Amino acid sequence: MITDWQTNKVYFSGRLENDYSTSHANIQNALNALQIEPLYLTDTKDVWARDYMPIQVGKDKFIEYRYDPDYLQGKSKGYRDLKTYPDIVCNRNNLPTTVKSDLLLDGGNLVKSENSIILTDKIAVENRLTKTEIINHLKRTFEVDTVVLIPWYKKEKFGHSDGVVRFINNNTVLLNEIDKSNSILTRKLHESKLDIVWLEFEGNKNKKLNWAYINFLQMDNVILVPKLNIEEDEQALEQIKKHFKNFVDSKRILQVEIRELVETGGGALNCISWTIKI
Asked: Is residue 86 part of a domain?
């Protein structure tokens, strides 16, 4: 797999500036300060590019899965209008040819190292497969040896893993302290021989927002950490710096104020970005 820390190009939906203008300006300013030029995708229906854009397995291999999430199938007017068609986006933006998969998936429900992927077990429910069947399917599709299915917290309707866990390196993952009581989650990770480090906070804790620190944007030369204008901001930044020291040495970990995006959109920096290696 191509990992987040191997990518060198970032795309956002062209809708980002219009839908979340303040967050967009802050992100743009941070990237400009590092002389990183983002690109923008046309023909998208919402800003959550991570969910519908293909997943890169090798430098020239991109898996295009079926993007048809249950949360866009509601009866309320307008839900279906938010569905983006990845094949159209790829064609209109002259992106690499993809390998089609029949797998029903949101990209936000897949976090990856070089040889492991982690998803919530919503993936088995969506595809109407047993956990053994879906694990074998995922191993073949994404060419990895290890697939970890962590429990889907049903109150979080999207069922995405990128708000729960992120890889620090091939052997270590970062989790928010709010999941310390989730024994099934920690057991699944330990059984896969992954070490866990915790993002922990002191003082008054804003659990409605501080989950978003896990959802940072990472490339080979930058990490953008959400800033939410709450007490935990500085604590989160210092801990992430501690765990990604090679980025600190080159002064390429920045905090970006995106409370507007997290509070009204329900996602953060990994959710809105599509990062690839070219």
From this structure: yes
Tell me, yes or no, whether 15 lies in a domain: yes
| Strand residues in the chain grouped as ranges (E) | 9-13, 39-41, 55-58, 61-66, 99-104, 111-112, 116-120, 146-150, 165-169, 172-176, 195-199, 217-218, 223-227, 253-257, 273-276
Residue 166 CA to residue 70 CA, distance in Å, equals: 24
Residues 88 and 103: their CA atoms lie apart, in Å, by: 18
Q: Is 263 domain-assigned?
A: yes
What is the tally of structural domains in the chain? 1
pLDDT, tens digit, 9 for 90 and up, residues 99-139? 999 999 999 999 999 999 999 999 999 999 999 999 999 99
Task: Report pTM.
Answer: 0.93
pLDDT tens-digit map of 141-172 = 999 999 999 999 876 778 899 999 999 999 99
Tell me the Cα Rg of the chain: 18
Give the CATH number, domain containing residue 192: 3.75.10.10
Residues of the domain holding 229? 4-273
